[in-house]
Amino acid sequence: MLERSTLPAIALAALAALSALTALTGCGADAPAAADSAPTTTPSARTGAVLLTDDDTVHSDGADWFRTASGDEDLDGNGDLAHPCLPDGLTGTGATSVVRADFELRNTSDPSVEVTGDLMVQLVGEYADEAAAEAAWSSVNGLLEECRDRPKAITRYRALQTRKVAVPGSDAVVTDAHLGPVPPEVDPTGDAAYIMETGVLRDGDRLVVLTSVVIGQDYDFVDGTPVERMLPKAAAALATA
Prior knowledge:
Elements: H1 9-14, H2 21-25, E1 63-72, E2 97-107, E3 119-126, H3 130-146, E4 156-164, E5 171-180, E6 193-203, E7 206-216, H4 226-240
Antiparallel strand pairs: 1-2, 2-3, 3-7, 4-5, 5-6, 6-7
């Protein structure tokens, strides 16, 4: 069961660098500093069609992810950092082109109920060859272990576990992490955390990084976590492009 709180503007300020929090929630937080902006890349026609669609996304009964924006790694100059542990994005790992999609969570059982603050970001990077993509896969997974170069607003980070995901023909893992602080105005008891799930998949010369961030205490799913269940769909999208 997932316990989730809404994320008002004060929480956005605390995690302004967490990729598109302000863009997705529209809470009017100040624009991020230059260091928190996504690097600029050129989208590739080969990878442009591999982003997840609304039909591909999954979350839980009564809620699902819906795409709000897509483009290159910095969303044509409008995107924030896509992942707090990847300050230079996939461009910094040697990708020759990167495309990106941002998603927001919506209540599908009762659309009138607003879900504020939960976000998901997908990056697809293309590399010169398989060796370069494999090196990037290792580099990204290494950065997720300690997240040393995270934005200063994130004072706490703990990687909980990294688990393999069975995706035929691909290398795929998911890393679960908690980060914070969650502002007391959002979490008066101090029991909640930002729960981040990052899936990293390599298929040939391309890399997928799929990241969801929610606020809560528990993150338990019977049939696998959302990112775990979406990685095979991300791989299938790569195969069709």
